[in-house]
């Protein structure tokens, strides 16, 4: 099964683009959503998180997000540590998802695909890109957060330029109609690549 990684900075439009691929019947795995679920359901993760962050990390068996966020916000090393606990399990879970999928290819979506070395499991990578000021305005409008908060989140991610240099495809997501067109072209290219591999 061909795996396509989809990444892009905060507010670039990954979810928006993903929905366009879903319309073509492509199964999509949203790493962040699955990671959040696994943090509450996997006893293995729970144990390791408590080892690092203490018993307060969980309240009534549910991850204490506020407490964890407070710590990792001030301490990037702890964020790396948290990622190193959660992401191997997410990848394992994703492999099962791939085994069960019947779509032409699958998409693995993650804002921190490269930061977590997730690109190794991908045959192709797509970066969704948009100007920084546009992304900031989108996130402020969507999440009702301050500009400083958005800038802080952007600072923790690789730049668009770095992501693009490591990608096979780039989607410039500014005008939605043009984005749809780019998705259609890339989808066709990917189907072609699958056919070529079969020959
Ligand atoms: P995050 O990394 O924060 O999850 P994301 O990359 O998944 O963000 P989206 O949630 O798809 O980004 O988009 C951010 C916001 O911008 C959403 O409210 C979305 O509806 C809006 N948006 C996305 N693309 C466009 C566009 N081309 N034109 C106008 N609004 C857009």
Automatic annotation (TrEMBL):
One of its GO terms (cellular component) is cytoplasm. Keywords: ATP-binding, Coenzyme A biosynthesis, Cytoplasm, Kinase, Nucleotide-binding, Transferase. ATP binds at residues 11-16. GO terms for biological process: coenzyme A biosynthetic process. The keyword Chloroplast does not apply. It is found in: Cytoplasm. One of its GO terms (molecular function) is dephospho-CoA kinase activity. Its main location: cytoplasm. Pfam families: CoaE (PF01121). It catalyses: 3'-dephospho-CoA + ATP = ADP + CoA + H(+). Its EC number is 2.7.1.24. Catalyzes the phosphorylation of the 3'-hydroxyl group of dephosphocoenzyme A to form coenzyme A. Belongs to the CoaE family. NCBIfam families: dephospho-CoA kinase (TIGR00152). HAMAP family: Dephospho_CoA_kinase (MF_00376). This is Dephospho-CoA kinase. It comes from Urechidicola croceus.
């Amino acid at each position: 099964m061909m795996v396509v990684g989809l990444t892009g900075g905060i507010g670039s439009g990954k979810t928006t683009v993903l929905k366009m691929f879903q319309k073509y019947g492509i199964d999509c795995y949203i790493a962040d959503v699955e990671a959040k679920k696994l943090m509450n359901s996997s006893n293995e993760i729970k144990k390791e998180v408590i080892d690092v962050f203490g018993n307060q990390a969980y309240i009534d068996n549910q991850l204490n997000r506020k407490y964890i966020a407070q710590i990792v916000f001030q301490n990037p090393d702890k964020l790396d540590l948290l990622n190193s606990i959660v992401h191997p399990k997410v990848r394992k879970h994703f492999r099962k998802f791939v085994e069960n999928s019947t779509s032409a290819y699958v998409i693995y979506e993650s804002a921190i695909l490269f930061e977590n070395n997730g690109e190794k499991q991908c045959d192709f990578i797509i970066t969704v890109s948009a100007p920084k000021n546009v992304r900031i305005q989108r996130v402020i409008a969507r999440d009702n957060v301050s500009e400083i908060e958005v800038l802080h989140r952007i600072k923790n991610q690789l730049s668009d330029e770095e992501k693009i240099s490591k990608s096979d495809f780039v989607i410039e997501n500014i005008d939605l109609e043009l984005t749809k067109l780019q998705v259609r072209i890339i989808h066709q290219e990917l189907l072609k690549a699958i056919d070529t591999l079969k020959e």
